[in-house]
Amino acid sequence: MNNEWDAIEASGGEQKKGSCSAIQCYRCVVTPTYRSDFNTTIPLCSKFEETDEFVIDCPYSTMCQKKVLRMELQKDHVIETVTRGCANQKYTDQVFKQGAWRREHKVEEPYSEECREFKENTLSASSTTYCHCRGNLCNSATKDSAGYHTDAMAVIFVFNAMKYLRSGTAH
């Protein structure tokens, strides 16, 4: 059987269409979260390690997600939080079949494999970067592509600053 179900699995009045073998992603949160329905605590991203404690099956996703919230406060003080998990791709619809309404779940593909930064507003210096990737446990990276871009820009700035300073002292 391939990744798409060849049949619809019916259970408890619900129908589910989606991935037969779920992708696995790393999952962690910023604040302690207890899931009573699974009798588990979701681990903190501040303690993130590439171990089984952080792995989750994502039956309604074909991608993993990493979200980085960055807030610049006073004078060079930056707060950055990270969360990891399954990409939100589940679409639930009500369908009328065989004389009854049932929920049908589908996996949609709204994301590209990339990191995208969103500015919260023009006045605040906060932003959120969403990174989506395909493949088991692909959301473990400690930096997103936007972070690498910032590092490259810093190197270019320092190089040009040094060049400028040297040219000013040569006269």
Features:
171 residues, Protein sleepless, 4-stranded mixed β-sheet, 1 helix, QVR-like, signal, 12 strands
Textual characterization of the structure:
The protein folds into 2 domains: 9-140, no CATH class; 142-171. Helix content is 15%, strand content 39%. It has 1 helix and 12 strands; from the N terminus they run ββββββββββββα. The strands form 4 sheets. The chain has a 4-stranded mixed beta sheet with strand order 1-2-10-9, with no helix packed on it. Strand 4 (33-35) and strand 5 form a beta hairpin. The model is unreliable at 1-19 and 144-159 (pLDDT under 50).
Show the helix and strand layout:
Layout: E1 9-11, E2 14-16, E3 23-26, E4 33-35, E5 40-42, E6 55-58, E7 64-72, E8 78-86, E9 90-97, E10 100-107, E11 115-119, E12 126-133, H1 145-169
Parallel strand pairs: 2-10
Antiparallel strand pairs: 1-2, 3-6, 4-5, 7-8, 7-12, 9-10, 11-12
